[in-house]
Amino acid sequence: MLPGLVVEPGVQPLYAANGTAIPIVDKAHVEFTVAGRAASVEICVTEAISEIILGQDWLRSSGCMWDFRRGRLVYGHARFPS
Fold it and tell me: What's the whole-number average pLDDT of the chain?
């Protein structure tokens, strides 16, 4: 858990790509920086996953583009991996 993170009860069920249910403990609003750009997202908190996984809804609303040919994610002028 992140220090100072305010969490609220989670209600939306989530599933892994293989259909396995991911038990949600809570949800929280997180602010962060990617390639020098401020961003924020509402996340679901679970004990099953230790990393933040940004969903398709956030990627779309943030203007991210998948470049499948080069195997990277484009976010503004930044490319991951570069």
Answer: 86
